[in-house]
Amino acid sequence: MKKNELIHVHTLLVEIATDYRDRGVLTSADLEPYHRLGIGPMALRDCRADHERAVRTLTTALAVCAARDLDRDAEGVPGRHLLASDEAAGTDTDQHATSY
Q1: What does UniProt give as the signal peptide span (predicted)?
Q2: Where are the alpha helices (DSSP H) in the chain?
Q3: What residues contact residue 58 under an 8 Å CB cut-off, 6+ apart?
């Protein structure tokens, strides 16, 4: 995926997060790991890797909240380590793919 496509996906995920917040599916605390990164979709000068991490973190937070809203087991959501504190999370992700 090209950087501009990744930024577009990032923007769409933020819209979903806003909808979830408006509907009461998630709270600001649920998005704290994402906000801690400090990378929003309009951070156009940030590197692709930063946007990838932000997208993965936001996707994981949304998946956990959706599972909880549907009374499903949120522990089974892949990538939950991305929601841990900075010291515990490190920089590794559970999805390794070469970006071209």
Answers
A1: none
A2: 3-23, 32-37, 48-69, 86-89
A3: 10, 13, 14, 17, 31, 34
pTM of the model: 0.77
Show pLDDT as tens, one digit a residue, over the chain (100 residues).
888 899 999 999 999 999 999 999 999 999 999 999 999 998 888 888 999 999 999 999 999 999 988 888 877 787 778 888 654 444 544 444 444 3
Taking the CA atoms of residue 50, residue 55, residue 57 and residue 62 in that order, the dihedral angle to the nearest 10 degrees is 160
CATH architecture of 3-89: Up-down Bundle (1.20)
